[in-house]
Amino acid sequence: MAATLDVNGKPLAVQAAEDTPLLWVLRDELGLTGTKYGCGIAQCGACTVLADGAPIRSCLTPIAAVAGAKITTIEGLEGRHRLQESWVKLDVPQCGYCQSGQIMSAAALLAQSPQPTDAEIDAAMSGNICRCGAYQRIHAAIKDAAGQTPAADTQTQA
Amino acid sequence: MNAPFDRRHTQAGPSRRDVIVTATAAGGALLVGCSPTNLMALGAEGEVGAFGPFVKIAPDGAVSVVCKHIEFGQGNHAGLAAIVAEELDADWTRVGWEHAPANAKLYANGALGAQLTGGSSAINNSWDQLRKAGAGARAMFVQAAAARWDVAVGEITVENGVVSHAASGRSADFRELLPDAAKITPPTEPTLKDPARFTLIGTDRVRRKDSRAKSTGQTRFTMDVQAEDLLVAMVAHPPRFGAKVASFDATAAKAVPGVVEVYEIPTGVAVVADNTWAAKQGRDALTVTWNEDAAETRSSADILTRFQGLTDGSAALAEGEEWQAFESRGDAAAQMQVGGQGETLEIGYDFPYLAHATMEPMNCVAQVSGNQARLTFASQGPTLDQLNVAKVVLNLPGSVEIETLPAGGSFGRRANFQSDFVVECVEIAKKVGKNRPVKLVWTREDDMSAGYFRPLVHHRVKVVTDAQGYPSAWTHRIVTQSIMKGAPFGGGGVDETAVEGAKGSPYLAATPHVDAQLLTPDIGVPVLWWRSVGATHTAYVMEHTIDQLARKAGQDPVEYRRALYRKADAKRHLAVLDLAVEKSGWAEPAPEGWTRGVAVHECFGSVVAQVAEVKMENGEPKVGRVVTAIDCGTAISPNQIAAQMEGGTCYGLSAALYGEVTLTEGRVDQTNFDTYRVLRHNEAPTVETYIVAQPAGAHPTGVGEPGTPVIGPAVANALLALTGEAITAQPFVKTSA
Ligand code: FES
Ligand code: FES
User: Fold this and answer.
1) Is the ipTM of this complex over 0.90?
2) pTM, to two decimals
3) Which residue of A has its CA nearest to B207?
């Protein structure tokens, strides 16, 4: 069966059955591999994309559920989001596998709350696991992108 | 330097190095009948460019450093590239990197004897090699310029990729000189820079080169490999380790749209399909009956009870089991009988199985045509993978081509003697044949239940102190599965990976009577190294025991450690401890509501001290500020050293607080992140990293693993100070499965 999805501002025809998770349609059918698989049960956030600006876990979202929504993936930020600048400036990624999901969750947060508090960042980001433990830099980069100075310098040579 | 546990240049004893050499040589001999000493010849004849195996210079003058080590988050590519760039005097902004192909002849790890990333050795074993590679290429440019301008070599300088002759005012960049320089024979012993004149190494300019690609979704991981005719495979694995397929019914699986074929393979039943979702649905629709005659059916609770019993004498040794001494001095038993003039501490510690739980589950892409195999995936040990794959396709190891991609984490999981998931993929690709690419995808559930865990471990320690409260006799028993014995070509002797960190501890060196022994029962659960390996448990046992002894002696834990380090002449331990103490403000009271704990440990040649601030929040420990001091020799990338301390601390804290794999009658209870709890954003500490200053040119040591094992005991020591109670088991917080 064919459906049309609005992905990164383009209407795209897809062939997958309507109960197929959006994640696999994005990756396998549309070739948008920036969105990752990490758990498949909405526990890790690696698959996070935006649907009408809200963060969703694409691994558990059937395409039928987002038929009319504007979907934004990491590719849709086109490398120009201020979060991406901060991510590069602070060298946030380690292995990098979680980072698309982290950035999409953070993008949704900043869109809703341009000057987030530490508690708001914690609440918005705790659904995104980073096994490399880049949390401290993720936190600092969100503050940097929001124009706030991160609390502490993390590294000094004695 | 503190003897006898310095690994900066060599590892003593039958350690990973020896066994891997044995493993690869034995595998090679088995396969190709080559001499066991001919390991290096296992690589295919690769093409070496004008500047040698490690340096490529493009026609536009851009430099690419060929990295023989995989990048899976540690940022080693930045350090490796910086070593070359420093000696080459290249323009750092025009230096890139690429993974080396599989070729043990050109790209073996000097510390491990095979092409393999591990033991935090990437920078350590490449230091001399890459300095020479960079200096050699520089000499070729200098010589080319001298010939072109007809001036003396000694009058030429190189800076930021520009070669100059001051007296005549001439200069040219790498691009202009490349055609001439590439024709010059590389010098075998190029002159290296005086380290005092380094301009790049140790500066904040040494940053990772992949942050933009990883912040825009552009990095291509194995999971992202796509091709026109690519098939995706998923495998139904047995529910218990050691079980085999008895029979299966694929009718329902084959009815799933997109499923192409179903095959029985040695590790289970594989479904191949046009796409990932079809493969998953097909795999889930299989009906498989398992033969569990040879399966491991014990529960982890029973295994632990037996381990405990083996140390207190309530359980008997089984056939073939024997205690092996790993450190002995004086007569500990006699000293214990006499009794010290101080206190006695006797305590046991339990550590569960741990999953690596890399963010990207295991996966691999393979194409097989006849006896030819080509793989595209994150190969941590290309030499091991070549040997194992060669056995499946019946060819020479060097014929197995591997293109290494970056991995979404490893933490040890991808360096596997059996190349488990790699061989599984090749078995399927062999069935498919026709050189058609097959991508094996493991779900999180597949990954978590596949084993190769950090082994379950029990320690029992008894210490008698002297009149001043310092240890006079120390008995130590460790019971755990052996990682090395579990390997198909394992050697005899004490498994160093089970005792490292207890063996060689300055606390044992400072104790007159020591009796330390290891027992490694066989259990049918596959085990493997897990970031920092033996230190994942030994650091905890040594550091938490020391705090309890300090408490009994009525001493400050920092002062108590200092006294023992002085006795053991452990200067590097003293230096990191001093730095962490100074930067943390140990002498002043902790901030209101917080309690501090300290721990110090040497791991893979680097020494780390941490002071952690901890409080109880909603019934669970919460870790705030963590001050870290590290001695890792010459610091090449301070930024990435800090990143590894931050990440390593989170990884170790995640395990200490929450990490636990349990087995019920042989079945793994945890399936995903809902039951295998890991550290999350709101639980992460704030890590400050301070690097101990070094004499210029000090040999660098690793940073990928040494940040992991210290946080557990630092937190436990803070909780000991808070509650007066020792914590004798990890994890501190139980998750109900
Ligand atoms: S893959 Fe969707 S939340 Fe983990
Ligand atoms: S950077 Fe590796 S999991 Fe986040």
Assistant:
1) yes
2) 0.94
3) A91
